[in-house]
Amino acid sequence: MTRALAALSTRSYPKSFNRLLNRPPTASPSVGQYTPTLFVGRTSSASSTSLFPSSQSLSVAFTSGVRTVATEKKNVRVESDSFGNIDVPSDKYWGAQTQRSFTNFEIGGDNERMPIPVIHAMATLKKAAAVVNMTYGLDAKVGNAIIQAADEVISGKFDDHFPLVIWQTGSGTQTNMNVNEVISNRAIEIMGGVVGSKKPVHPNDHVNMSQSSNDSFPTAMHIAAVVEVHRVLLPGLTRLHEALVEKQNAFNHIIKIGRTHLQDATPLTLGQEFSGYATQIEYGIERIKESLPKVLKLAQGGTAVGTGLNTRAGFDVKVAAEIAKITGLAFETAPNKFEALAAHDALVQLSGSLNTVAVSLMKIANDVRLLGSGPRCGLGELLLPENEPGSSIMPGKVNPTQCESLTMVCSQVIGNHTTVSIAGSNGHFELNVFKPVIISNVLQSVRLLGDGAASFTKNCVIGIEANEKKITQIMNESLMLVTALNSHIGYDNAAKAAKKAHKEGTSLKEAAISLGLLNDKQFDEWVRPEKMISPTPSKLWRTISSKRTTPPPFRTKIPTEVKLKKDNRWLSILGGVTLSSMGLMAKTYGEEDGTTVKQREENNESSEVNPFSYDTPVVTWYERIKLIFGAIFLAPTRIILLIPTVISLICTAKLAVLGLDEESKSKPLAWWRRLLFYQLSEASVAPIIVSNHSSFIDPMIYYYEAFPTSVAKAEIAKTPIIGDVLSYICILVDRRDRSSRDATVRKIEERAREATVTDRQVLIFPEGTTTNGNALISFKTGAFHPGLPVQPVALHYSHRHYNPAWVPAGPTLSHLLLRMLCQFYNSVTVNYLEPYTPDEREKRDPLLFAHNVRSKIAERLNVSWTEHTYEDVMLMTLALQMHIPKEEASHVELNRIKSMYNVDFNDAKKLLEKFSKTSKKGRMDYEGFCRSLNLSENEFTEQLFSTIDTDGSGSINFGEFAVGLAAMSQRVDFQDTIRLAFEALDMDGNGRIDLWEMKSVLKRYFTNMDDQQVEHLFIQMASKEEPHIIKKAQFEAFAAENPEYVQLVANVATKRTTGYRSFQ
C-alpha cells in the first residue's frame, strides 16, 4: 500500500492534461520528492475567484484533509479516493476519480470529450434526484445546494470542468463521477465548506444518492437525445419540409421530362418532383417522432442490475416525473429496468430513423446538384444560389457546395448508425458497456442532420429557381413523349416512331408522320405534355337515374338487375316530410350524369375566392313581392306541417335513446333502436361519407337518405329538446380543444370499422364549417385517418335570388330559415361520386388522401379550393366583433400562412387586435400605419408600408397586414435582422440598451419623434424587474411580436453603415 501511494505521488502526467493546464510537460519527480508540475490557466471568473487563489511564495496547508500547494503559476490541491491521494488542479471542481480517468484515457484529445448535452442531462438527473431524495430524508440544505449547483451546470457555466473523453468505461461511470464531483464541490462551496473535503456534500452519498452509474448514464443518454432532437433536429427538418413545399407549389405549373435509369421518361411537373422530396422529409419527421416514445422511458431506479437496490419504492416514478417537469418533455419511468440497462434498442431505433433521414437527404441533395449541373454543359434545369467562389484556378466557377456539404453529413450519419448498431448488439448479460459511443454517435447524427438541413434550406433550397427555358427545350426534344401515342397507334407502332426519330435525328412528330401512323393535327392533339402528368380519368360508373323520386342509399357500384330497397323506417319518412315541408326539392345524380352542376365562365384562383362571403344579391322588387306572398301563404302552411312532424320526430328519437347512459354515447346503438332510426344500406365498401358543407340543412338531407352516424360540433348537445338525442347518434367534437379532436379521430375509426357489422355509415363534413359554396376549404383529416374507402358526395344549392349558405358574413340562422320558408321552392342537387379507395401512399398520408378526395368533389362542383380552415371562421367572427366590415373580415388563409410562416391562431388574433385599433372600415392607410407604430412619417416607415402594401393601392387590409408582418418575423435571416437592430441601439456595445441610447438613435433618423414616443416604446421592451435597461433576450421577445419595429431599426443600421437599401 505504501509503495502504491508513493508511486501515485510521483507519477508524471500525460501531455493532454498539461495542454489543458497551459503548461508544458515536465520530468517526473524522484521518489519521495513532492514537486508540483501542474498549472491551471483558467480565466473564467466562475471559479478563479471562488477557488484557491495563487500565492507568490511556496506554502503547504492542510485543512480538513485537503492539501493545497501553491506557487506563482502553480496551483493544485490533493484529493483522495480508494486508491489514495492524487493531485487535482485547484481551480477545477472535478475530483480524484475524474483525475484518474483523465490520466488513464488519453485518447483522441479534447475533440473526443463527452458531448455537453450528456453533461447537462446528467445534471438534470442530479437535480431531479435531489428534489426526490429530500422527500425521503436528504437534508434540505444539502439538497438545495445540490440543486443550485446542478442548475449552474445545466446553464453551461462549468462546461470546461468536464474533460473526460467518450473512450472510457463502457458504462459511463467516470462521467457520472465527474458530474457527481463537480456538483459536490460546487455545493460545498455554496455552503461555505472547503472544496475537495467531501463535507458537507459527498459526491457518492449525497449527489449520487439512490443512483448507480448503470442507471444514471442511460437515463442521461435518453434525456440528451430527446432534448437535442427537439432543439436542433426537428426544427431544421420542419423548415426544410416547408421550403420544399413552397418550391413544390411554385413549380407546379412547370412541366419537364422525367428520368428513370438516368434515361428519359414521361413528363411530370417540377412541382411533382419536389413533392416527392417534401414527402420524404415529411415521412422522415414522422419516423423520428415515432422513435421517441421508447426513448422517453428512463432507466433511473434500476441501479446496478435493474433490481432497484438501494432505492426507495416509487423513487423511479418520482424522478421521471421531476425530469419531465424540468425539461417540459413527457419522460416516464421504464416499465422494465433490466431491458433499460442491458440493451439500448430505443436509441438503435432512433439511430435507424436518423439513418433513413440521412438516406433521404442524400438522395435529395444529389438530385438537386445533378439538376443544377452546368451552367452550360449539364442538365441545367435548376438555378442554384451562388454562395462563394468554387475554384482556386478556374475563374468564375461556382460549385453546389451546400449539396456537397449535406451529402458528407449524410455519409457520416450513415456510418454512425453502423457504429450504434454494433454497439447496441453488445449488451452482454445485465449491462451494455458501449453506452458512451452509442450516445456520442446518436447526438452527432442529430446535430449534423439538424444543422445540415437548416444550412441546406437557408443557403440553397429557398433560393432555387427553375430554368424554364432549358426545361422546355429538353422536354420538347425527348422521345418518351411517344408514350402518349400508345392508346392511339399501339405500343409497337409508337416504338417504331421513337426509334426512327432517334436513329435519324428527327423529331418524334416528323418520324410518326413519315411512317403514316398519324397526321399533323392528330399528333398535336394526342401528344400534349400537360395531359401526361396525371392519370386518365376512369370510366364513369353506372348512372343512378335522376328521375328517381327517392335518392338511393349510399352504396358502391349498383348492378342493373339489383333494385334499390325502399326502406320504410319511421324516422326516414318523418325526415322526408320535414324536408318537403321546408320546400326542399332534391335532385340526385350519379357519376355518369355528365356535366358538373355548376358551370362557370372560368375558375377563380384560390387567392381570389372568399369562401365565407355572402353573395345573395340585394333584394329586388320581384324578391320582395315573393317574400310578401310567401310570408302570407307559404310560410304559415309549412310551419303548420312542420309542427306535428317535428313533434313526431322528437318523440320517436326520444324513444330510441330511452334508458341509455353516458357510456353508451361512445358505442353503436342496439339493433332494435336502430330499427327506429334509419334505413339500411350497404356500408361494407365505403363506410365513410364525406361531403362539402354549405347549409344548416345539409345533415337533414343525409339523415333522410341513410341516417348515418355523423360528426358534429359539441355545441349541438345543448340544442333544446333534441340535444340529448343528437348526443347519442353523433360523434361530438370540441373544435377548440386539441385533445377532443384527437379522441374524435379514434371514435371515427372505431365507428367506420364497425360499419361493416352495423351497416351504418359515418357522415363527415371534413371542411369542419359551412362555406358559401364558391370554393372548398381545407379538409380536416379525421375522415381519412382510418385509411378506409370513402363515399364522396357533392351538394349544390342552385339559387338566383337567395343563397341558403350559412356563413359568418351572412344573415342569422333565423333569417335564413324565414327566407327559406318563403321561397316557392329550394333546390339542392346531390351528386354521388364513385367511391374512393385510397392507395397505400394515401393510407400512410391522410393529408394526401383528403386533398385528393377534395379535388374530386371540387372537380364535380366545378369550383376551386382554398387553404382556409375553421380557424379562419373563428378569426372572422372576432373581426366582426371588432367592427371590421364583413367584406374585409376574411382576407387571410390562416392555414397557408401557418405553413409558410409558422403563425398560429393566437398569433393571428394578436395581429388582428393590433390592426383593428387603427384601421378605418377594415383598411389601414399610410397615416394609420404610422399611428399604429407610434412613429412619424419618413422614408423608413414609407418603405416598410410599401413592402406590406403588395397591390400598391395605398391602403392595406388585414390579410396584407398579417402576411407582411408574419413574413418579416419568419424570414430565414430574421435573427440577423434582430442582431443588427440590437447592435444599432446598443451604442456602447455592453450587451444592453438604455433609454439614452434609444433616444439618440431613433430621434436622429425619426426627426418628428418626441421623447414621449421613445419612452413609450422603451417601456414596451423593458421588463418590470429592470425597467431602466433592455437586455438582448427582452429585445428578441419584443421582436418576435413586433417585427415591424425591428425591421425599421435594422434599416436605420443599414443606412448608418452602407447607405440606404431596400429591405424587401
From TrEMBL:
It comes from the Eukaryota. Pathway: Lipid metabolism; phospholipid metabolism. Residues 936-971, 973-1008 form the EF-hand domain. It is an enzyme of class 4 (lyase). One of its GO terms (molecular function) is calcium ion binding. GO terms for biological process: fumarate metabolic process; malate metabolic process; phospholipid metabolic process; tricarboxylic acid cycle. It holds the Pfam family Acyltransferase. This is fumarate hydratase.
